[in-house]
Amino acid sequence: xxxxxxxRLCPHSRSIRLLLGEIALDVSLSEERPWEYRPEFLxxxxxxxxxxxxIDRGPALCGAYSISxxxxxxxxxxxxxxxxxxxxxxxxxxRAEVRRLVDWFHGKFAREVSRDxxxxxxxRGYRSGGAPDATILRAVRANLRYHMSYIGYLAHHRRWLAGxxxxxxxxxxxxxxxxxxxxxxxxxxxYEAAKQWYARVKSRPAFRPLLADRVSGTPAPLHYxxxxx
Length: 229
Description:
Elements lengths: L2 E4 L4 H12 L5 E4 L7 H6 L7 E3 L5 E3 L1 H14 L14 H36 L6 H24 L10 H15 L9 H11 L5 H4 L18
Parallel strand pairs: 1-2
Antiparallel strand pairs: 1-3, 3-4
């Protein structure tokens, strides 16, 4: 069986868990604390980043980009019956838009929101137990509002974020928002279009394992598992 090394609130890991759920591929989960930089994990991925998918009798795929592209290529070469999986649908231009948005969320959103949010509200507690830096959190919350406006714009003008079909862009965006939502940081009441889009993704069966995640010492808000908020 394939093995996915992840951390339950890591958005990059969550996007791959969603992807695997959408294509109904069972994997064994191995949780890694990314702030520990264990030598054993660095031997698996010298960059120290999550997730890592070790293919049974195959390679170790490091990072959400390489994993998603590898799986998309496998599905192209070995298509399954029924509807195509939500990875990179459409023509060349449409696939380019999917990849642009994946880069937006796994790059820009991660740098401006997810990285510092997890550091201040989760990782810091495991390392030192100190209080979060209020200045950093204020900046993160301001950045998050910018991203919520953009998600709302896309959701208002398109059926899904990248176009007519659900894609890996939706999974990447939902992965980052779900981690922020677990930490009670998403101002859903101010972004109705984004909220309605997220509810559609959140209600999919692939999302259920994420809604069951819990982090010791950091309880989820009551609405986290509520499909209707």
